[in-house]
């Protein structure tokens, strides 16, 4: 008994994945994570089905298994095929002024889902969560939520189908009723088992999970979904958010709702290598959407972990180790052209292409992407933020 416990503890120490901490001794073992969380891998048949149902090529994040796991995504597709609607729900915890590329990944994918399926979207800004976990003041959390909203809007969401809300502003009424119903279904032991809270955690943390669960139920948004309690919800998110929705899926049938479906992504690796998420406290661990072209070039050349050999001679002889090479990983996220990516992988892996050439191509792609985002964000006014966050009906949300 004790022996099993110690091996289990050892395994847990080697890999920690929860909404507040992602760390591993080496690379994150996603197979182990899928097994532990109890979700499924997204297979090719589902990707083909998405392409068929939407009439457009699958997003690069689907083709390359950036979004790699799911819960009940097939049921969403079944319902859609029968002509039933669904809505999307995703979110952001506003803990910093600027977003890095890893923060953009779920929003880029959510925009694709909104466009492809022509469905409404609710985006939760958990300013209350960050106030409790990051020790920010209420006012600072609210300010950061609005700043982050500008970056989210800059991803190109459709204002006629999108409602962005901050918890401090929106929670109340029907939303709060659902929070209380959810809270009554989850024992203290259960929440400790799911989230690992300890006696040292303040009660705000223990009471927060229902806030993130409530948007999974359509009745939390009476201005959008009155009389649509049967509407399904699909949540695109990084896999570290899964514990919240395991809890939500557990209580949904008891409250008379569909279990929310999830489609979950890998973590975007830090420049220094794949040992989890990037650290907000280390600006050199990530490319930020506020970085200049010079910053991007410098970070990639100086900090991006290379799988190339230690000398040109050895590199030509042995080729690059693509498994650990960060520029190759980043190209896998952001280089749209499958043929070009395959060419770079082949040539670099064989030693015919040098690290410098791969980093140069990545710098071009990221500089263009960040510049495009910066222009889009500069065009987002306070009035636009107010418009997206206004509590209003969306009469064209399913058209």
From TrEMBL:
SUPFAM superfamilies: Nucleotidylyl transferase. The keyword Cell wall biogenesis/degradation does not apply. Belongs to the class-I aminoacyl-tRNA synthetase family. Keywords: Aminoacyl-tRNA synthetase, ATP-binding, Cytoplasm, Ligase, Nucleotide-binding, Protein biosynthesis. It comes from the Eukaryota. This is Tryptophan--tRNA ligase, cytoplasmic. The keyword Thylakoid does not apply. PANTHER family: TRYPTOPHAN--TRNA LIGASE, CYTOPLASMIC (PTHR10055:SF1), TRYPTOPHANYL-TRNA SYNTHETASE (PTHR10055). It is an enzyme of class 6 (ligase). It comes from Olea europaea subsp. europaea.
